[in-house]
């Protein structure tokens, strides 16, 4: 490595050309640098000059609160309970906690570290391995799709918030047009049907299998009044509901107003966004556990069905839920931590956020399943899983049903609850949209913050209209599956192998030691290098091997819908090879082998944003991570894992 610093004439400037030769995995017998000029992307993005000072959080606690507001959101209150319901209740809980320990927590800490260390956004951070830039771009596209349907959910929440001011609550009692198989959600006003009415109910439900079970008024209200849901989408998804269009506009207006000034203002808002939801959640939990039959529902939630624990689909659901709940492998964490001061204690913050996220998911689970147990008690069934359908509607059925049972001023609790959901949704969407804005502005720095924010808000609003049509829940499920779950797992695996083996776990640990002044334990090294990527790879292989066509309410989608879904998945995943080719072509190496080798090595400007720190870092890292020459591949692998 005697020629490492040959072209490194001025380490104080970010535009210093060439690439770092230090790598724990890529072993080269020639330490010279292929070429001396900046690649095309570096020239176009203007990184040959000193950058403007990057914005930082006003206080370290603002970063922590923002991470809580981002990670503790609809993924906990909305997605976690119905994912647990669809996967056997307690049978899902054990895999989820294991996955959290072996996948969620390691990835969360990894992304915090890599974002803070480099002060780069979710796409720019792959300067550590330009050939894998497609991971960052794919994640940016993925999080953009996520933000479009999160806003649609917030629009539905807004509709409920508006209706919460009515007395009585519109979902508290049954409407005649819903049919006779309906029971009131409000207490002491149950429709105790006489025998002849029950006979009419049987006649009413015979022709429509979907209506054969008795439903609460809150469920009928959601399906008939809010969604105007269609039985299928064979003839299209229909036109948007104008009431939800207003809600969608308000949702994106709120996001735009908060992010148009960047991280400074969003940090101040994070205190309210992070703390307020827990107050309301506590009130609802107390109410839920005091309802008759709630204990049966909670027991269903915590008692594992051992047969399902061995079902790989349950583990796959646990992994995807972990992604949604913690927001890992979406780029949000990298983006937020990139605004930290160098040296901020992200190890502590990662432990706090992952622990609090788990507690919140369990809190939401106890609340929901307590309500489901009560509903089963009221309907007269022992099967908790059959009480309500899964999907996005669970939070809009079970929670309103619980609120309707408050005998004293349920409107107050309803207003507060849906305000909480609105805050959670906005908090998560702020992070996702900010991730898209940061990715664009890192590439086009002359694009102003408010311009970029407005552009994304308008495009997302237009796309989000399809989710608030009568067939909108079909499309939401489709995009959630093909555009989020499938892409997240593939790109997450690519991210882990890139950082753990191409960039190198050992180098990452040295980066942490340089930044935080603390040694990295064996648990982190094993997870980053072996356990986490291996588990995710096995689950992905099994999922594709046992793939079955996606269904919504047990109804298969038309062929055109599957075509849209697979097109979305392919577009996200194909970013990997596409940008790998671009990186190889742009590399300044003289020969093809030099171009390939150079494309998988960090830019020399990789490292801390501060020029003096970066110069010190490069001096230390080149000596510490020199691969063990002449000892073979196994020695390099051992060095990468154990140091």
From TrEMBL:
Record's InterPro entries? Na/ntran_symport, SNS_sf
Could you confirm whether the keyword Transferase appears in this record?
no
BP GO terms, sorted:
amino acid import across plasma membrane
> Domain of life of the organism in this record?
Eukaryota
Keywords, sorted A to Z: Amino-acid transport, Disulfide bond, Glycoprotein, Ion transport, Membrane, Metal-binding, Sodium, Sodium transport, Symport, Transmembrane, Transmembrane helix, Transport
Residue ranges, compositional bias (Polar residues): 1-10
Report the record's disulfide bonds. 174-182
Q: Which residues bind Na(+)?
A: 72, 76, 325, 424, 428
Instruction: Kindly list the places in or outside the cell where this protein is found, as annotated in its UniProt entry.
Output: Membrane
Primary location recorded for the protein, binned into one broad class: membrane
Alphabetical GO CC annotations of the entry are: plasma membrane
Give the membrane topology, semicolon-separated if more than one: Multi-pass membrane protein
Tell me the leader sequence span: none
Transmembrane domains' residue ranges: 60-78, 90-110, 140-162, 239-259, 271-294, 314-339, 351-372, 415-440, 452-469, 481-503, 523-544, 564-585
Positions of the UniProt region annotated as Disordered: 1-20, 30-51
What family is reported? Belongs to the sodium:neurotransmitter symporter (SNF) (TC 2.A.22) family.
Its function, per the record, reads:
Unusual broad substrate spectrum amino acid:sodium cotransporter that promotes absorption of the D isomers of essential amino acids. Neutral amino acids are the preferred substrates, especially methionine and phenylalanine.
The protein here is known as Transporter
